[in-house]
Amino acid sequence: MSEIDARQGDAHEPPVTPSRTAHFLWQQLPYAVALLLAIGGVAYTNISHQPLVGYWEFLALAIGVVCVVTKWPEIEGKENQLRLIWTQALHWIAVLITMNIILLSGVQQLLPTPATGLVLLTLLALGTFLAGVSLLSLQISFLGLAMGAAVPAISWLKQSIFFFLLGAVLLIGLAISFWLRQDRRPTAGTKNQAEG
What we know:
The chain crosses the membrane at residues 29-47, 53-72, 84-107, 119-149, 161-180. Keywords: Membrane, Transmembrane, Transmembrane helix. The protein is an all-alpha fold and 196 residues long. 86% of the residues lie in helices and 0% in strands. The chain has one domain (2-160). The chain contains eight helices and no strands. α2 runs antiparallel to α3, α3 (53-71) packs antiparallel against α4 (78-102) and α3 (53-71) packs parallel to α6.
């Protein structure tokens, strides 16, 4: 009897299918793309040594659209939907104005170009986190936190890239010497033939 109950209990639990996993990954895709675009913008700014004014503005607007689109199905009533649009529009306009203040020529003279990219990423991260808090959205808040965590990570990585390169050269050298050492050892068959 317990075996029949166990089978019935198993029948009621929906199995985790690849389609459910694919659906979950599809829902997370906008957040992952936004994070990759933000980090890519900082990397390009560091390489080219010129700020990407339009890029950061586009990214802020894109994240604002993601905020509205992801929250839209949960909002009922035309008045609440209009409130969502206006509050997000005002929020992201404030972020854009702050970004453009950083990009003014008088402010740009005080900041080196690589620092400008990090400051813009910090503003974007703060705007994203605050949008997530106001929308009560964990994904948007975590996206803002991930962008914010990328700022010190990028600056640390840039400062320590030389040490990473030295460590990589050391590991490659050790691997090559170990590999060459393994090739020079006689195998059991060749050792017996040499003795015979």
